[in-house]
Amino acid sequence: MNDRQIQIVLDSFWPLFEAALKYTLPLAISSFAIGLVLAVLTALAQISGVRILKFIARVYVWIIRGTPLLVQLFIIFYGLPTIGIILPAFVAALIGFSLSVGAYGSEIVRSAIQSVPKGQWEAAYSIGMTRGQALRRVILPQAARVSVPPLANSFIGLVKDTSLASSITYIELFYKSQQVVARTYEALILYAEAAVIYLIFTSVLFVLQSYLEKRLGRSLSS
């Protein structure tokens, strides 16, 4: 790189990093929190004995998993205004990512619940627990331990997927890098710089995930 390119990288690093801290991470965390609630509710609906709930849950998962996330964001942000529903970019992105996390996460949660031995249900019933009590006090705590590693992977993937929010004008890390590219015409180094910042954040998350899995492993073996 020449002196001008080096200076551009130095000048743009903090604005890009700040955008990741102020916009990318809050969007990812908020979407994951809401999506996790949706995931649990959807998983419970799928394993319930109520047909209408199972049907609604399965259709929701089918639609979200069967269509591209980018298309979903475009429908929410650009499509809904045609019927009078206008949403800010953050809200549109939050809805899109939350629905995605809910659909994919529900399969993780459902599998985790079904992986708990049936004997745990029977033991809970034998001491007088209702199905709801057994689920809340016995089954879900065990399922949570099983589902943490894949859900952590989903969160890391979500942090990277937030770059799609730039397509609906949400000013996160990638959108900020596009703005700088438009001024400097240095696409290669600036997009590479954005990739490095994503890598920094995901690397920290990988370390946290590894630590969490080790803690869970010790608790399960004890």
From TrEMBL:
GO terms for cellular component: ATP-binding cassette (ABC) transporter complex. It is found in: Cell membrane. The chain crosses the membrane at residues 23-47, 59-79, 85-105, 188-212. Keywords: Amino-acid transport, Cell membrane, Membrane, Transmembrane, Transmembrane helix, Transport. Residues 21-209 form the ABC transmembrane type-1 domain. It holds the Pfam family BPD_transp_1. CDD domains: TM_PBP2. SUPFAM superfamilies: MetI-like (SSF161098). It is a multi-pass membrane protein. Coiled coil: none annotated. One of its GO terms (molecular function) is L-cystine transmembrane transporter activity. InterPro entries: AA_ABC_transptr_permease_3TM (IPR010065), ArtM/GltK/GlnP/TcyL/YhdX-like (IPR043429), MetI-like (IPR000515), MetI-like_sf (IPR035906). Belongs to the binding-protein-dependent transport system permease family. NCBIfam families: HEQRo_perm_3TM. This is Cysteine ABC transporter permease. It comes from Paenibacillus bovis. The lineage of its organism: Bacteria, Bacillati, Bacillota, Bacilli, Bacillales.
